[in-house]
Design a protein that fits this description.
The complex is a heterodimer. Chain A is an alpha+beta fold. Chain A has three domains: 187 residues, FAD/NAD(P)-binding domain, CATH 3.50.50.60; 158 residues, D-Amino Acid Oxidase, subunit A, domain 2 (D-Amino Acid Oxidase, Chain A, domain 2, 2-Layer Sandwich), CATH 3.30.9.10; 176 residues, no CATH class. Helix content of chain A is 32%, strand content 21%. In chain A, strands 5, 6, 7, 13, 14, 15, 16, 17 and 18 form a nine-stranded mixed β-sheet that branches. In chain A, strands 1, 2, 9, 10, 11, 12, 19 and 20 form an eight-stranded mixed β-sheet that branches. Chain B is α/β, with parallel strands linked by helices. Chain B folds into four domains: 93 residues, Fumarate Reductase Iron-sulfur Protein, Chain B, domain 2 (Orthogonal Bundle); 40 residues, no CATH class; 136 residues, Glutathione S-transferase Yfyf (Class Pi), Chain A, domain 2 (Up-down Bundle), CATH 1.20.1050; 117 residues, Rossmann fold. The chains are: A alpha+beta, B alpha/beta. At the A-B interface, α10 and α16 of A face α2 of B. The complex binds flavin-adenine dinucleotide. The site of flavin-adenine dinucleotide has 38 residues of chain A, from α1, β2, β10 and β18.
Chain lengths: 584, 419
């Protein structure tokens, strides 16, 4: 069995785990990170998209508010290209009565969240679709953020500092030494789920950054922690609708924020305690509630096209918790299991927000340092991840680059403007097991047609690459793709841009089965569309159905028994009884 | 681009199912790579446009000719052309509008100036030297046919012939547009003759340019003023219940639909005007349906290739010109199914677009050629299209109202005058 020795093992490739790996590697530790699926496959890739100013928490959770504004300022520098400076409004609608707005203003002052009341006229000038019956508007420095890109960029920064990141590697058990009172976690049993191999990773410190799954991993050490999975459902509108984040000025509740992110506007969220963080079913009432609440901010929005719905699961930690999940604190939980459970070599970091991942990572590595011994100080707040030279994200950047370089004829995904070279570089240089991985890399299939036109193109391209390229496996660390530019058409112009880039490693090549790629991705896209199948999106799906079922007959593709590490995940969830294949 | 309201054209991008039918029909994308196609620059690019971006993300939208073939074939009702026109206006806001486009946008002003001393103006504009200069200095294509000023404007003729004009209880308001006013008063004469032939008294109220050239050249604030002026002048007649009938298919489309839609002028006045405006053949077809159309036609023995212009098809009223002209004995009409003549209003006058306009038109020009040597003229409703078709076919092109007036024995198709 393959064995890796390291100083720090990080479990979980979400924002938090990747942040920990980055921080620890910069401080000079040897770090290995394992993620059981693709980076950001967990909550990080299913969140609302809001770079919090802290405004949301100024009344209810002032500590979080202060943390948010502090990190908000830092991330704009460290992850510039992942963030759009949309600004944010807190608006008082006729439904929001009482003294909350005054408390809000006082709360902003107390927590240091900049807040400026603007006239309704000015607000309507900037956002003409806002509810004209709004009485007050406060402006705060909210933003929107691409967590896929940010996590990939953080991961690249971590790799450049020497960390090793392994995705599609699942921790199946912790390696524990010592008897009662002397227990010590010395690493983990890990399964390479893509290749079906087991390995062992030995580490002096194991850090679980598994978010809502933290308790599952804690169980592997024989302990239990109270992480409450709180499911949140969001719906994305087909276009931006707004260019400013709009929040209701009231106690945080369901469906009270609309975030413009990339080409869509996202209304969210609900918050429901769920037993299992894995199988999140989107209920019709949730979608309906989002649209009803959205209507209070932007009248008419519920009749516009909804492109998709999805759910993420909050890792809410609370000691001796007993109430409903919205009331659980948003502060993060950093658990020293030595202190709490007398288990050495094991730390859990969970809870918090995407906005505060860097801070969480810093505190976590500080704690690890107290056991491993001091190295270099934390420098993440003043470093920057690769790609920041592109400047802040702006909506038109892809269109602009396509136009400048005349790449219109190169498009694979027309809705989100993904060129063939962007796709090929992502396949070559980022471990790719499913097309969904490419979606997270380059936004393949995320637009109105939800994969209708790009899925078969992408499968064809990937297939062509796997049969025509002779491979030499990438050496980890050295051949890192410039992930920082993965979303830039102009930086991925021709295959010459990737000359010298490694071909797909042979063992990975063996994982590609075009039919399986096609089926998995169709199923994955379908999953998010089923909850919102009406109006324009229904027309779209009807067309997509004709393409795939009537023209390509994908229901009867060969290799129907094949499955990938994510096949089951895509199949379950919102289609518990559904089966892609026709019954025998 | 910011969505101002759910009623505006922008949100229709939500109807797009990416089917690419528009892309495969677009006559411009078919002949040049400079235009990535209506889906691309329309509903697709629109999702990436927004106010206050560091750069306007795309310029290729400027190659949209505005022909509306995409709107016509779109199965889900995306207002593609309108989205493009607005995007061009946003571009203009950022980069300014070239002097040439400002001139082309204000052809009403130019037309009026020229009409003061038409002979001189014609000489000034039509001699080879000035066309070469205009081409190299201003970017106004040398090959495109420019109209000639008439010796008398249509208004002058109306005034001169006031005594002879029919008085009647049945009244109709005539919206002639700029071209009839300054360049082609004979279209107006033919129209007045046909109206009177049906016993209608013709009212020609004060009126101005519909604003379409301004819209197409991205001058929205000015276009708004133009439309408001027309609302002030024309809605009183609409309120009295008079039909407001026009011969220029693009002007009537602008009054009916384009101006209110593009400029978000959805007030009650605009609605009243929209409801009152008719294309002349749309109106004649109404007469026919109620049995009031005069049928004292003389035979017109000839082969006549007829092209229904894009702007006319955009009215979504079927083919009333074709229906009425087909009542004329011995007239052998050959209907063109070409998508567009290529001229597209002021598009062909822009030097960088001239060749595109000729290439787009090839479909129509070839069709005309295929009808044989006996063809002596063609027919089309829109003036700029007629000029372009004349360039492309070397044959005269007549408005269907001229054909009809001739069939009633009121008009001479060769001298283009009343008989
Ligand atoms: C609906 C919703 C909306 C939100 N919106 C916002 C927002 O707008 N702004 C904001 O700042 N925050 C938001 N948050 C919070 C934010 O998304 C999370 O706090 C953050 O993403 C958590 O990141 P993480 O890395 O801790 O967890 P995750 O992203 O969940 O990462 C944990 C990872 O661990 C992996 N893992 C689990 N078990 C194993 C194992 N055995 N072996 C290997 N890997 C394993 C998982 O696959 C997963 O990728 C939102 C949360 C939800 C639920």
């Amino acid at each position: 069995m393959k064995r890796i020795d390291t100083e720090i093992l990080v479990i979980g490739g979400g924002a938090t785990g990747t942040g920990v790996a980055w921080d620890a590697a910069l401080r000079g530790y040897r770090v290995v990170l394992v993620e059981r699926r693709d980076l950001t496959h967990g909550t990080t890739g299913r969140y609302h998209g809001l770079l919090h100013s802290g405004g949301r928490y100024v009344v209810k959770d002032p500590v979080s508010a202060t943390e948010c504004i502090h990190e908000n300022r830092i991330l704009r520098k460290t992850h510039t290209h992942c963030i759009e400076d949309t600004g944010g409004f807190f608006v008082v609608t006729p439904e929001d009565e009482g003294d909350y707005p005054d408390k809000f203003v006082a709360g902003c002052a107390a927590t240091g969240v900049p807040c400026n009341e603007i006239s309704l006229k000015e607000a309507m000038r900037r956002e003409p679709l806002l509810n004209p019956r709004i009485s007050r508007v406060f402006e705060v420095p909210d933003g929107s953020a691409d967590s896929f890109l940010a996590t990939h960029a953080t991961a690249q920064a971590a790799r450049m500092a020497g960390a090793q990141l392994l995705n599609y590697h699942q921790v199946t058990g912790l390696i524990i030494e010592g008897g009662d009172g002397e227990k010590r976690v010395v690493g983990a049993h890990v399964r390479d789920v893509a290749r079906g191999e087991d390995l062992e990773i030995r580490a002096q410190m194991t850090i679980s950054a598994t978010g809502a799954w933290a308790n599952v991993v804690a169980h592997m050490a024989g302990i239990s922690i109270s992480v409450i999975p709180g499911k949140g459902t969001m719906v994305a509108m087909n276009h931006r609708v707004l260019n400013t984040v709009v929040n209701r000025c009231k106690m945080p509740a369901d469906g009270d924020i609309i975030v413009p992110v990339h080409t869509v506007a996202v209304i969210g969220t609900t918050d429901e305690r769920v037993a299992d963080p894995e199988n999140l079913r989107i209920e019709p009432w949730e979608v309906q509630l989002m649209l009803e609440e959205g209507e209070k901010l932007v009248p008419g929005i519920s009749r516009a096209r909804v492109v998709r719905a999805w759910a993420g699961v909050r890792p809410l930690y609370q000691e001796d918790y007993a109430g409903s999940s919205r009331d659980a604190t948003r502060k993060f939980a950093l658990l020293d299991h030595k202190e709490r459970h007398n288990i050495d070599g094991f730390i859990t970091i969970t809870g918090g927000k995407w906005t505060t991942f860097r801070l969480m990572a810093e505190k976590t590595v500080d704690m690890a340092t107290s056991y491993l011994g001091e190295r270099k100080p934390c420098i993440t707040a003043t470093s920057s991840v690769p790609g920041v030279d592109q400047g802040p994200y702006w909506l038109g950047h892809r269109l602009h680059e396509i136009e400048e370089k005349k790449l219109q004829g190169q498009l694979v995904c027309e809705c989100e403007l993904v060129t063939r070279s962007m796709l090929e570089n992502a396949v070559r240089q980022n471990p790719t097991i499913t097309l969904d991985d490419l979606r997270r890399d380059v936004r393949l299939g995320m637009g109105p047609c939800q994969g209708g036109w790009c899925t078969y193109r992408a499968v064809g391209i990937v297939h062509e690459m796997t049969v025509s390229e002779t491979g030499h496996p990438a050496e980890s660390g050295t051949a890192e793709w410039d992930v920082a530019y993965m979303q830039s058409p102009a930086r991925n112009v021709s295959s010459s841009a990737s000359a010298g880039a490694p071909a797909i490693p042979d063992d990975e090549r063996a994982l590609f089965n075009p039919n399986l790629l096609l089926r998995d991705f169709l199923q994955e896209r379908w999953k998010g569309v089923t909850p919102i199948l009406w109006g324009q999106q229904l027309k779209q799906e009807r067309l997509d159905e004709l393409i795939y079922l009537s023209v390509m007959n994908v229901d009867h593709l060969p290799d129907r028994d094949l499955s990938s590490p994510v096949t089951e995940f895509y199949r379950y969830d919102t289609t518990p009884n559904g089966n892609l294949e026709a019954p025998e | 681009m910011h969505t101002e309201s759910w009623q505006s054209v922008g949100p229709t991008l939500d109807e797009c199912i990416k089917c690419n039918i528009c892309a495969s029909y677009c006559p411009v994308a078919a002949v040049t790579d400079l235009f990535p196609g209506p889906k691309f620059v329309g509903p697709q690019a629109q999702r990436f446009r927004e106010n206050g971006q560091p750069h306007s993300p795309d310029h290729s939208v400027d190659y949209c000719s505005g022909c509306r073939v995409c709107n016509e074939v779109c199965p889900t009702g995306v207002r593609i052309t309108e989205i493009n026109t607005r995007a061009r206006a946003e571009l203009a806001e950022e980069h300014g509008i070239p002097l040439r486009n400002r001139m082309l946008g204000r052809n009403d002003v130019l037309a009026k100036l020229g009409s003061i001393v038409p002979g001189l103006a014609n000489f000034g504009l039509h001699n080879g030297l000035s066309r070469t200069l205009a081409d190299s200095v201003m970017g106004i294509s040398k090959g495109a046919k420019l109209p000639r000023w008439a010796n008398d404007t249509f208004a002058k003729w109306m005034k001169k012939t006031a005594e002879q004009r029919l008085k009647s209880d049945k009244k109709v308001v005539y919206y002639h547009g700029c071209s009839t006013m300054y360049y082609e008063p004979f279209i107006g004469k033919a129209t007045v003759a046909v109206f009177e032939h049906h016993g209608y008294e013709v009212i020609v109220p004060e009126q101005g340019c519909c604003g379409l050239p301004l819209l197409n050249n991205a001058e929205f604030p000015e276009a708004r003023k133009y439309h408001q002026r027309n609302l002030d002048w024309l809605t009183p007649y609409a309120r009295q219940g008079y039909p407001i009938v026009g011969t220029s298919s693009s002007c009537t489309l602008t009054l009916k639909e384009e101006a209110p839609e593009m400029l978000d002028m959805h007030g009650p006045e605009a609605h009243e005007l929209t409801m009152a405006v008719w294309d002349i053949f749309e109106w004649l077809r109404e007469l026919q349906e109620s049995g009031q159309l005069q049928t004292d036609f003389r035979p017109l023995p000839m082969v006549l290739p007829y092209h229904s212009p894009c702007q006319y098809r955009a009215h979504r009223i079927g083919s009333p010109s074709l229906e009425i002209m087909s009542l004329i004995p011995e007239l052998d009409i050959r209907e063109s199914h070409a998508r567009c003549c290529g001229g597209a209003g002021t598009y062909v006058y822009k030097k960088e677009k001239y060749q595109i306009a000729m290439d787009v038109g090839a479909e129509l020009f070839d069709f005309v050629k295929e009808q044989g040597a006996e063809v002596t003229m063609t027919s089309c409703n829109s003036e700029t299209c007629r000029w372009h078709i004349e360039t492309g076919t070397d044959l005269p092109c007549r408005h269907p109202i001229e054909i009809l007036a001739a069939a009633y024995g009121l008009y001479d198709l060769d001298t283009r005058d009343l008989v």
